[in-house]
Amino acid sequence: MFKVNNLDQHKQLLLLALPMILSNITVPLLGLVDTAVIGHLSHAYFLGGSTIGAMIITSITWLCGFLRMSTTGLSAQAFGLNDIDKNLLVLFRGLIVAFSIGLIFVIFQSPFINGTLNLAGGSEQVQLYARQYSEIRIWGFPASLGNLVILGWLIGNHQTKAVMWLLMITNLINVVLDLVFVFGFHWQVQGVAFATLIAEYCGMLMGLAIIFSRYKEPVKTLLLKSRVLFFSLIERSSLLSYFKLNRDILIRTLCLEICFIFITFQGARLGDNVIAANAILMNFLLLISFGLDGIANATEAMVGKAHGEGNRIKVRNTVNIALLWTGAFSVLYSLLFAFAGEFLLTLISDIPSVVNFAKDYLIWMVLLPVISCWCYLFDGVYIGLMQAKAMRNSMIIATFFCFFPLWWLLQNYLSAINGNHALWAAFSLFMLTRGITLGWHYKHKIIGLDRVSS
User: Which domain range does residue 383 map to?
Assistant: First the structure.
């Protein structure tokens, strides 16, 4: 299974992966900048409030991650077939769905924000700043969901350098506005929210401009055939296939979101210092996951293209190569947090109680890269193969048969504050279970079927 002998595929994977790693890292780095800006204000409840507010908004964005995943897989397979019209239909259909979902949340924002804040809990101050943050950020839903489709489409078409520059410029705009609004205008939590809102719309407009400039003639040709385009977008079998695929990815992402939200909300119930420390650790976790996702994103594009070409040998070789490189990068991340974790904590916050509390949990950041890298990689494989059902089943097992049972068992034996270790232990087993189940399925169902058919 792990035999690797194709140097050209090593090169191709790294040429796609390295821009994605660089661009993906800017996303959690932006989160770290947001956290650092708020973390240097006078009280922990500023950081706690912005964390709850961000979780309310990003939970929907992450839940709609199926827009990015399905767009990547479908466009990669169309790219392998060299069918530009089918490829553009994937883009247009995704954008229509993204904008529709975004507008629904904007229209019904009051009951959504009120309901989630009631679930979140936290002190009065945390609730106040969480509301301020979320009431601003919710207006960015159409752009943030549209960006998922745009990024997914560019990745599927092997345009990872364009993705890199798009994300870097968008996040640079966000960072600059963070500093201006928080330290210049003294808008505190609201300043961070406005900075992200503006950056999201800038990113969407730049992404659409990149696509139009690179595919001007095919886009014009398809738009001129408006009647054909309309009926192609609403064609029944294509829509059913699209929503069935996205249904499984949605269930998979919902389970993941349940775990993330549970960690955040449970931390809020343990106190302001706990939620603030967990906010820093969650940003570290995102730094790990987005970096390792660079390999997974490249794998999605390569596996999807090979699958579209009907080249099963290339699919297997790509997976073997990706397994090797994701393991190597995971070790580098573990070493980073082992030797520089405390230094990174002090960069993000100068509140002694928060920093000292977070230090006790750095061990999880050292362990998690090696534990979790396999599930990130196999997610990429199954997105490329468009086998969302396996991803869904793996996530259901990990969530309801590992995460919650282990948390329930451990929290009964730990004190209120140390109960935070129960959350991180349960999450680590959750990630490991995802990797094991997907790896088992790949070996016995994907490779096994290939061997039987050959």
Answer: 7-387
pLDDT at residue 400, rounded to an integer: 96
Q: Looking at the domain assignment, is residue 422 inside a domain?
A: no
CB 218 within 8 A of CB 88: yes
Q: Total domain count for the chain? A: 1
**What is the distance between the alpha carbons of residues 144 and 152, in angstroms, rounded to a whole number?**
12
Place of tokens 């990630």: 431
Asked if residue 222 is part of any domain, the answer here is yes
Query: So what's the pLDDT on residue 104?
Result: 95
Residue 242 in domain? yes
Indicate if the pLDDT at residue 4 is higher than 50: no
Q: Is residue 107 part of a domain?
A: yes
